[in-house]
Amino acid sequence: MRRIPVDARRAAFTLCGVVALLFAAPGVADGDVFGPISLVSEGAVGGGAPQQAEYAHDAAVSGDGRYVAFDGSVGGVTGVWRRDLATGAIEQVAGGDAELPSISENGRYVSFTTNEGKSLAAITDDRPDQAPKPEAANVYVRNMSESPGEEGAFVVASAPSGSTQPLSYSGAGTTLGSAAAGRSAISADGNEVAFVTTAVSDLTDPEAPLKPTTPALQVAVRNLQTQETILVSGEYEPATGTTATGKPVLAVVGSETFGAVYPGNARGFRAPPAYGEWATNPPPGASISADGSTVAWMGEDIGRQAPMLAHESPSPLYTEPLWRRIVPGSQTPTMRVTGGSDPADPACAASGEGVVSTPPPPSDPCQGPFVVNPEGLGSQSFGIWPVQEGAGAFGDFVPRLSADGYEVAFLSGALPVALGENFGNHLSGEPSDLYVADMHPGLTRDQALTPLTELAGAESVADAEPISEFDISPDGRQVAFTTRRTQFPLGSPAYVSAPAAEPGMSELFDADLQDATLTRVTHGYEGGPSEQPHAPKRFGEEDAYGNQHSVGAQSPAFSADGTLLAFSSTASNLVLGDGNTPPAGSLDGSDAFLVARKVQGALPTPQYVSSPPEAGTEPVWQLGVTALSRSDGGVLLYVEVPGAGALRAAAQSAVLVSSAGASRARRAAAPRGHASRTPARKDRSRVTVVSRTVATASRVIPVGGGELVALVLRLGKRYATLASRQGGLSATVSLAFTAAGQPALRRSIDVTFLRIHPARSSHEGRTAARRHGGRP
Amino acid sequence: MTSARGAALAASLVIAVSGLAAAALSPAAAAEATWRSEEPTPAGSSWPIGLGNVGDIEFWAPNRGLLITAGDPPTIPPGLWAYNGVEWHPLATVCGATDGRIAWAGPEEFWAVSDGRAGQAGESSGNLERLAPLQDNTLCHFAGGQVAGSYAHPAFQADSYQAMRAAACLGPSDCWFAGDPLEEPQIGAFHLHWSGGSLEAEPYPGEGHAVEDMRALAGHLYESVRIASGDRVAVEEARAPVVHRINPAEAAPKVVPTFEPEDENGEGLPLYAPTELARGLDFLHLSAADGALWGAASRKYSEPEEAGHKPGQVTVAIREGGTWTQVVGPEHPLGPIFPPEQSKEEEQFKLGAQEKGEAKNAVVTAVAAEPGTNSAWIGLKGAHGSAATARAVLVRVSSEGHVLEEQTLPSSREQEEGVGPKGAAAKIACPAPNDCWLATAQGWLFHLAPEGERTLPKDQDPNFAGLITFRPADQGLPQVPPDAPPSDDSGLVEEPPNYGTFAESHASVESKVTLPLLSHLRSRLVNGSTLELRFHLAVKARVRLIAERRRQVVAATPMHTLKAGGRKLLLRLNPRRWPTKLNLQTHALAPLPLVSQVTGEGSNVSTETTGLFVLPRTRLSSGLGLLP
């Protein structure tokens, strides 16, 4: 028998403790955690009592997290509003029909689109706009440091370069003019504003305002300080590899004209959406990065704006997200973010291909990340964003940029080539999925692409509902999006939240690109999914909201550090007290909300190590022993002694002894079993079990004799044969250590005296058996 | 009655008397009363929100009021709220309704028309499944600070409860509830009558017009009906009565109360223009005060215009001294209600883009007679546009038909303070002079009161102070047999009863009794030898009447399956073998409802045995002499 020394066990326990600490402290990797959701479209207007907005859409949070801007109705007054998160006060930014706000980092500047530009000072008075005077839509910036009536409070951004008056439009009426995307149209310092013209304007020919000639759907950026407006979109000049300055994009096909920007709406109706219809029909727009360096938009007529393969000539209907750096010193021509071909891939350039093969082999170096085949189907290919009506046409098609402009988040209604399924069957028009592209130089479009969502099926809402609206955090690490989809099959980012049992309202999700996790952000304050009062689900319906795309969360927006996420939602159960939801409330009951992401800081590996055993100057006065059975029938004791002294070991065992006849002594030496086989009646002897000391040993340990002493116990002659029995002889060894001036130490340990005979071959066994005339 | 309750009632009386005195002696003070939002802020919220669709507001006293709401979930659950003179607070998170009604039966007892509870199976028809209707088709009886009784009936049956739009009581043992027409092919309007011990269906026969409102006045109930094309009636009438009078039970020769068409001279109420059809005018909203019954109706926009007939318009009639008088209507059209400087407000009543807005084309949403003023507040809204986004419009009309004042809410002062529209006027109640309440379509509450008198002595009655969260089971809930073994009530494992002392009983234990299956047993002989046995069944049951003579069955009815309510059995007897014993065998097919003794549902009902009945004492003229 082998025993573990006490001290060795103690050491093992200590080690286990350390190991346990090492595994327990860091925790299992988990998805991002978001705090409770707060309703921000409520507060006191003009020092009055707190009240909740009748409705609020298009929430945008300032970079410093101090303000949230939204459009909606508060106290029966419509317009764009700004809520101070520190004080709870709500301040009107612009009255009337102003909508789609974007807010600067410190919240001082808010851009928006309105068709009551000239009336802004008068109608921004916390009162209902009783007599609207609509005009052409334009983009304005409100300086919140100035009162509405003060000079400089409202500055028009959609203005010709050098002018402080709005652009002049041809046939704009009261619905068209210029528009800015919500949440992403203003730079962090509030100095640059990106906008898109939706009517023929004098953008590039300001000297002739009465006869505007600049075609509609051009991208421009206004510098508010210098009052300079630059045309961002322009025709690509293959000869120089640059974007022509001041040359807007125009294509005329029959009676239709095409500009640089995809206007939205269905294929059959090419006009941009009318002002006021944007709630269900997203307007065209462009995003500008927080540093003002980069602009992105969903382009159409791509062949006129960016490099294509030599023989590619896509229809003007063909769409792709486009990107251009405009900051002096790092200007670029307009570049394709992604698409159906990648002429910039060095391997493609080396191959000399002029057009992507149909169907494209996977190894084709000129094939872009998506199956859109810009050339093969001519006018049937709509590119990344489907123009036709249907499921894929729903969603926010304006790309979003990181703060430095190099990360571009975008939706695609075309399937990626890498997906393989349905290859070549669906060129576009699938329910949209979300992607991020890295625009740093040196990457092929395939290398730059990161898919964030992927269809889990073909038909159901749970599997294939389009991604609706989205935003990318300034550092490019997170992408938030909204959808009613509940299944996210991608392994990276891995969906780490509990999937909803069935689709319902649109929920807000957050994809952390660094952790490769996908988390559902929105939930009821009592748990469960986002909800609002609704009729019971009807027979055959997949969800209880009548398959409406727009119910639930929309318009996510990040703060500068990515820890705050603003969004709007029509759900009524996100916050206790949300009381504007139909049927009790008016309109759609949407509200602006804010949720904070709990940043899990990088946790260093715990360095805790168990403290070493105390090393006292005095040795611990204790005795330890380990026993080992030897094959010769002895027992080897390793005794740990505290110092010099006398050590004595005695083994005691129970043996049978006979108290009568001459054979008593002989029988006493016989094993217990043997004795029992001898009938006591016949020889008249009495057999009893007694305890006998069967082995002893002692040792005197001199000073400096060492702490570990080896001691061998051998059975006395009378008992030696018992070690040869089957199982040997069990005994208890008692140790005693005595030293002068110290208390005696005693220990005991169970041992077995077992002699192990060398194994004999079977031949030898059989021979021996025959020799003795017995069986082997 | 506890001293607290007595104090509350006394306070209410003082308030009412002082209000009357104030109205009579100090007209200037009445003029100072102003409307203002007094919306409660729900617990846990930092801002007030609408309470949801308020179906009804009713007051027992100025400092004891109730409202029933569909709620604004999840913050405001469906249920009832109570006003204690100081504030509105949640009273019950059960018994809410889509468009509920409240009927006060006593100072601490009331009924609520409530939504049913989910759980009933739908009705399948091919691939379509019709869900069991749940809206406003059940009743909750509140008493003693709890829901003492809950009444519902399974859907899709001939006697299923219909949605109820009207409720009123003449006393604790005489309450009426009415609503939609009966299910086809029956002709009539659905009515339930509470007689103090049981709730019985008492349909208004012959006319299938939906009952929309009901008020008590001078010992009678008056109900108004909506006349619509397509209503099933036994006899077509050009001018069907739009108001019925329900006579109380004790005043009628029969047990069952009677309905009387409230019809002057057989020509109907003085509501219509000569060429105006009854179905062109919507139902009369009713309100009673100071012995007068006010009725206000408007053009029914759901009914198509018919050539040759004038459409309806805002019409107000008053019943005083048994006579109805039209004060606003075709004979006295409602003119512009806003002053010239607010003429744009009138535009909300226009019917088409090219037409001019006229108040007479408005939709009447509510009426409330203000006690002591000979006037009533009437809620108006435009025929088109969302009621949820509109502002509330009220006019106060005198009994002579003059528009005394108009009010738009939120008021201009509140609008200056940033308060936005809270929806059109939906319900109004005036418990005292210069004391009215308005609920808007969003469930926002506005209060008319003089400044400085906006709060009253707080009602301390504990029955209205707590939160009621339990609603007892009823027949509208599916009866699911438990999957657990029944509790062991054999007594084998129980402690022996302690007969030594009287245990102090708890009110909650005492207040619940099981309603007997049989009640109101009456028998009589018809045609000399046919025994008619009338009785009331509390639940659906199988019933058989057996007549025995010296342990021999001499007559018996087949086993009938009878639904709950008043029923009768006929048994023909042989005079030569006249029974000596009657045995009514019963087997209940549903759980017997638990009712409260406090409210009378249990205490007023005597339990009947089904073993022996006394036969009618009568003589036969057959020459056989006296019957045994």
Structure in a nutshell:
The complex is a heterodimer of chains A (776) and B (628). By secondary structure, chain A is mainly β. Mean pLDDT of chain A is 83; it is low at 1-31, 661-683 and 761-776.
Q: Percentage of helical residues of chain B? A: under 10%
How many distinct beta strands of chain A?
A: 44
Q: Describe the global form of chain B.
A: globular
Range of helix content of chain A: under 10%
- The Cα radius of gyration of chain A reads 43 Å
The span between the termini of chain B is 51 Å
Summed over residues and divided by their number, the pLDDT of chain A gives a mean of: 83
Q: Count of DSSP helices of chain A?
A: 9
The unreliable regions of chain A are 1-31, 661-683, 761-776
Low-confidence runs of chain B: 1-30, 252-256, 500-510, 597-628
Question: Main sheet of chain B?
Answer: 5 strands, antiparallel
Structure description:
Chain A has 776 residues and is mainly beta. Helix content of chain A is 8%, strand content 31%. Chain A contains nine helices and 44 strands. A six-stranded mixed beta sheet of chain A has the order 3-2-7-6-5-4. In chain A, strands 30-31-33-34-32 form a five-stranded mixed beta sheet, with no helix packed on it. In chain A, strand 16 and strand 17 (228-231) form a beta hairpin. The longest helix of chain A has 19 residues, at 6-24. The two termini of chain A are 30 Å apart. With 628 residues, chain B is mainly β. Helix content of chain B is 6%, strand content 38%. In chain B, the strands form eleven sheets. In chain B, strands 12, 13, 14, 15 and 16 form a five-stranded antiparallel beta sheet that branches. A four-stranded antiparallel beta sheet of chain B has the order 1-31-30-29. A four-stranded antiparallel beta sheet of chain B has the order 2-3-4-5. At the A-B interface, strand 3 of A face loops of B.
